[in-house]
Structure of Ribosome assembly RNA-binding protein YhbY:
Amino acid sequence: MLTGKQKRFLRSKAHHLNPIFQVGKGGVNENMIKQISDALEARELFKISVLQNCEEDKETVAEELVKGTKAELVQIIGNTIVLYKESRENKQIVLP
């Protein structure tokens, strides 16, 4: 689990990032979880935007993504979810 200090650090790192995934009408599915897992392995930290036509609320979407990818939820801000997962092969972010 991330500490408050680590979450603050990750939030500051994520601030300038643009969302690379969008969750829309279909919600979260297996394929999306696999793609997000692969992207987490490559990048460790990124944003996902929840579109307005998504039938699930953003908390539910975040929960499903965290469960599916075994990532850490850094924050939900507006309709954007920030996820972090330490990369096994491609570690770039050193947590405080």
About this structure: The helical segments are 4-14, 30-43, 58-69.
